[in-house]
RNA sequence: GGGCUGUUAGCUCAAUUGGCAGAGCAGGGGACUCUUAAUCCCAAGGUUAUAGGUUCGAUUCCUAUACAGCCCA
């Protein structure tokens, strides 16, 4: 697989050049005093402060006996200025051999150029690491989506907005945890390898444990384990981590995706609505300094209370057909081939959800769709459940948890008599307090908050077919 | 799974009706001590995704494959 092009060959030769000069071009630790932004923020006119900084050489402008260049660190870029009369002819000619992409450490005093850019005058430099491959020109960036996903490191390097998006993703996750931690929720970790994949309806990935001699499934949801913890007296828990579903890949689905699940004892789905509002309000306010953001040319206002509408009300509103019972949806689509749940999902996906632009709770789902949710006391056909939507996208799902082990077993049986998680039923038999549960799809939340339309843009290394 | 679109130099993009495959930047050589998409001069860089087919001649038309993107189920 040895790939040789002229460009790679030239860089290999540079490697040899440095070694012949007695410089090993894969250096060691380098102590810095300033990041790029600290240099800029700390600048005082006339102070001539000496700094040590390090970064990747991103551009170069050579003028005979002087060179302007930019080095880049995680915070940004800082201009550096090398002159033959400062470095001496030998070191200056060495400096000329740096390629864009190389990591260098520099030491020198800070000044402002005639054009007003804060710049480090290079008095000493250290080779930190050689780049053996050419970088795409930053000006044009890297646009080829396939290359961007396969070589995300290059994407991050040359596309500033991509780097910023993933920094934002990190902030969102930090803020979510910060809010929940303040509310006394305990972050926990439950098995990703499960012998019965529960908590959702989806095809799991199968793996094998050699020592135990059994097949295991990568989890499709952590739900049943988190509720076991509430049985065990951990009254407020959350887990924010990966789920795996062996299904199609699309702009909204990656086989592994990140989910936040929260459980709160003695609460119900109305508490989960308030929790959702407060949680997202906290995140959005801290991230943007406002509760209003622009997403796909539309202003989204996170100010609570959000719209609350039942599933049947929403269907009636958006199709114009009065629906009060599940069977009524056959008045909208009369397809004998399709089950009621198929028709319902079709109507919700196509007629209802695209209209839910402002944050909206769509509530009170039919019981047949929700085997883990508690029925409404005045109507056992419906459960206390909501999904919430922003920009027409489903971002989360919540319910008053079903804590009746007998009813739960019955519902599992109706769903699939061959795969009943008896241990979970047994846990419920010990007693699950009334409990509200909430799940939020983190990738989709990040998409909504960063105005992105493909999940691959918010996952660092999206799944692709190997080349 | 189905449909549509794309794949040309390291990167970003051209190429007329089927008629010598081009540019900018990067990279190489040279000039230049305040540039910042530096500038100026010179030279180079290609199995047009892959495999076939039609044709005197294919980046261009056809078939298949691979990968990707968008839409649909």
Strand tally, please?
Answer: 21
* Structural class by helix and strand composition: alpha+beta
Tally of separate domains: 2
Number of helices: 14
Question: Brief overview, please?
Answer:
The protein has 467 residues and is of the alpha+beta class.
Structural description of this entry:
- By secondary structure, the chain is of the alpha+beta class.
- The protein has 2 domains: about 5-130, Nucleic acid-binding proteins (OB fold (Dihydrolipoamide Acetyltransferase, E2P), Beta Barrel); about 155-305 and about 360-455, BirA Bifunctional Protein, domain 2 (2-Layer Sandwich), CATH 3.30.930.10.
- The chain is about 30% helix and about 25% strand.
- The protein contains 14 helices and 21 strands.
- The strands form 5 sheets. Strands 7-11-12-21-20-19-16-15 form an 8-stranded mixed beta sheet, with helices on both faces. Strands 1-2-3-5-4 form a 5-stranded mixed beta barrel.
- Helix 6 packs across helix 7, helix 7 (about 160-180) crosses helix 9 (about 270-290) and helix 10 (about 310-320) crosses helix 11.
- The longest helix is centred in the middle third of the chain and has 23 residues, at about 160-180.
- The protein is elongated, with a radius of gyration of 29 Å.
- The mean pLDDT is about 95.
- It binds one RNA strand of 73 nucleotides through helix 1, strand 1, strand 2, strand 3 and helix 5.
């Amino acid at each position: 697989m040895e790939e040789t092009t002229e460009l790679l060959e030239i860089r290999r030769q540079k490697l040899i050049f440095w070694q012949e000069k007695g410089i090993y071009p894969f250096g060691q630790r380098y102590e810095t005093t300033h990041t790029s932004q600290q240099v800029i923020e700390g600048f005082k006119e006339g102070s001539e402060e000496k700094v040590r900084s390090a970064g990747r050489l991103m551009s170069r402008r050579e003028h005979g006996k002087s060179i302007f260049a930019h080095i880049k660190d995680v915070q940004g870029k800082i201009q550096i200025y090398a002159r033959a009369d400062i470095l001496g002819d030998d070191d200056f000619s060495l400096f000329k051999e740096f390629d864009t992409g190389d990591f260098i450490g520099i030491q020198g005093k800070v000044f402002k150029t005639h054009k007003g850019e804060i710049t480090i005058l290079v008095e000493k430099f250290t080779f930190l690491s050689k780049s053996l491959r050419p970088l795409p020109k930053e000006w044009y960036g890297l646009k080829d989506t396939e290359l961007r996903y396969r070589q995300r490191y290059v994407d991050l390097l040359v596309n500033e907005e991509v780097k910023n998006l993933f920094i934002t993703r990190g902030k969102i996750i930090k803020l979510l945890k910060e809010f929940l931690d303040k509310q006394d929720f305990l972050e926990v970790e439950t098995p990703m390898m499960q012998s019965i994949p529960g908590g959702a309806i989806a095809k799991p990935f199968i793996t094998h444990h050699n020592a135990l001699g059994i097949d295991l499934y990568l989890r499709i949801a952590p739900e049943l384990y988190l509720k076991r913890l509430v049985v065990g007296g951990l009254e407020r828990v959350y887990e924010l981590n990966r789920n795996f579903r062996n299904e199609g890949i699309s702009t909204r689905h990656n086989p592994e995706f990140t989910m936040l699940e929260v459980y709160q004892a003695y609460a119900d789905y109305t508490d989960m609505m308030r929790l959702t509002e407060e949680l997202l309000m906290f995140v959005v306010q801290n991230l943007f300094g406002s509760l209003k953001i622009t997403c796909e040319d539309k202003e989204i206002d996170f100010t609570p209370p959000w719209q609350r509408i039942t599933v049947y009300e929403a269907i009636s509103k958006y199709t114009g057909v009065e629906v009060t019972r599940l069977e009524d949806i056959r008045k909208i689509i009369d397809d004998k081939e399709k089950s009621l749940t198929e028709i319902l999902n079709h109507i919700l996906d196509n007629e209802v959800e695209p209209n839910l632009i402002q944050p909206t709770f769509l509530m009170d789902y039919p019981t047949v769709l929700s085997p883990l949710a508690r029925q409404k006391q005045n109507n056992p056909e419906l459960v206390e459940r909501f999904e919430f939507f922003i920009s027409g996208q489903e971002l989360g799902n919540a319910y008053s948890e079903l804590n009746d082990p007998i009813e739960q077993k019955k519902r599992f049986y109706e769903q699939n008599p061959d795969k009943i998680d008896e241990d979970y039923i047994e846990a419920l038999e010990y007693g699950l307090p009334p409990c509200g549960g909430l799940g939020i799809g983190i990738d989709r939340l990040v998409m909504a908050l960063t105005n992105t339309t493909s999940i691959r843009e918010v996952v660092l290394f999206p799944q692709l077919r190997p080349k």
